[in-house]
Amino acid sequence: MAPLLEIKGLKTHFPTDDGILQAVDGVDISINRGETLCVVGESGCGKTVTAMSILKLIAMPPGRIAAGQIIFEGRDLVPLTSNELDEIRAKEIGFIFQEPMTSLNPVLTVGEQIAESLRRHEAVTRKQALDRTIEMLKLVQIPNAEGRVHNYPHQFSGGMRQRVMIAMALACKPKLIIADEPTTALDVTIQAQILDLLQDMKERFGMAVMLITHAMGVVAETAQRVVVMYAGKVVEEAPVDDLFGNPGHPYTQGLIRSIPRIDLDSEHKTRLEAIGGSVPILINPPVGCRFAPRCKFAMNVCTEKEPLLREIAPGHRMACHLGDTNLGGAA
Amino acid sequence: MSQYVLRRLMIAIPSLLGISVVLFVVLALAPGDPFSELATNPNVPPEVQAALRAKFGLDDPIHLRYLHWLNAMLHGDWGFSFVSRMNVDTLILQRLPATLYVIGSAQILALLIAIPVGVYAATKPYSLFDQIANTLAFVGFSLPTFFTGILFILIFSVTLDWLPFVYTTDIKGTGIHWVLEMIRQAIMPVAVLGLFQAASMTRFVRSAMLDVIRLDYVTTARAKGLGQAKVIVKHVMRNAMIPVVTLIALQMPAVFGGAIVTEQIFRIPGIGSLLISSILSNDTPVVMAVTFVFACLVVLFNLIADVLYGWLDPRISLR
Prior knowledge:
By secondary structure, chain A is of the alpha/beta class. Helix content of chain A is 28%, strand content 23%. Chain B is globular and about 85 Å long. At the A-B interface, helix 2 and helix 3 of A face helix 9 and helix 10 of B. Chain A: It is a peripheral membrane protein.
């Protein structure tokens, strides 16, 4: 069966005074129906821009989709105008943003903000929209939903606001939910609750979830498949068990080693390993592998030739010259 | 809410008292008083002058005169204009409609220009429209009203002879002719004052819109597929108007101040020109009353700004 969403060779560029910032540079991601896909990577690796490009929520101009296709249910979204995309936004693809504190309009009640989405996409009366909104608030476990529906965002805590955001994203029962670091801004205890809620909702409505995160712990808990991004490119893609059990790319290995372990005895505990350096600035990026300057396995070929994604196990692909038998004489 | 307004009005009393003291003292220190003209009039004998001064308490110590004035004010007696030979309150009420008509129309004109232009410019920043609007706004608030006023008179009255350059309250004619004539003579002063206001307001609306338009909740609204127009009006404007409304309310006293100049240029018999002519003729009771009215307006519009702010922004609760 064809995937629900298939991103092919997506390039999203932002012209700046210093040159073109290639925030997303040839990304391929596909999501199947009902699947949870995690997109991981450091801040600034292009995860959010990739997600925002799907519904053209990046600022355009200056940003623009320079190349690629975004095929949702057999239809390419890239050539669509903003007006045409409005039919898909919220209705087919729902969005949950990172910052619950700033993602809700402070001068409108939460009920109004959920209901307006329903009224936009479905033929409902105001009353029906309100009832459905209350129902959604109950579903995301907001106590006293009938009363709270008329409250303003500032009357909710961060976790409750994120529940409101989830209710908003789910209101029109979309086939795909894109959640951009939905727990990053929350307390650890609340994070788990929100992730559980997302899982619950996903099972209840049978939708696919694209979860963007930089927390490997979140990945391990929620994902079926994982895409690792680095500097605007996909460097590895694998089923979750495979990725944690047999990480191929040195960057992925670094990410996994940077997770604190509590399951080891204290004498076996080692210092947490950080990956030195930071994500390169994506204006005139270096040729070859973009991770090479930070990679401890870097070879000569790494700075000369760009590694392409290749399959190293069923469903497990990575972009690294390590162990590539086609490279004459390489490791 | 009503409690809040009541409490604010109570707080306004001491500040208004303070303002009146300052005004009274400053006016008392100023040279000349309503009877100084009598002193140079050879037909009035000195003893008559002295009797009159004593009768009106002009030679009393300043605190006694102040208390006398305050007492009269509290009883609704605003004093008597020696120059116009009528009560000050009648005089002010006579002059106020012209001022309110001109200022009100100018403010409406300013809003009608500033809001659409500012909003549209902000939705397309750095576009040709935005650049032109910005340049015109910059020119607009760089030119003082006394300059543009005279320029308008030169062009539209003297050269083209389209509009009258003296504003009169006793227009001949009735009915529709009177209305048209009222509008015709108000065009220039309203345009001069309104365009000047619109210039600074446009820039303010634009920057308030730009501040909001890049916020996360606007992206949330766009992600709901609401469409550009709805996102702009419901989510961006609704928030951007909070500081704009406050600014407009707080600017009102300055608008009255600016109207003084405009009224002088176009000879509008309003409250501003009344103030100027009273100052020039040493008509202290009128000066005192008009400046006090301005002070009340400042306090009132500050209160209106606060109330509007609380009404527009649910995060602010007025207690």
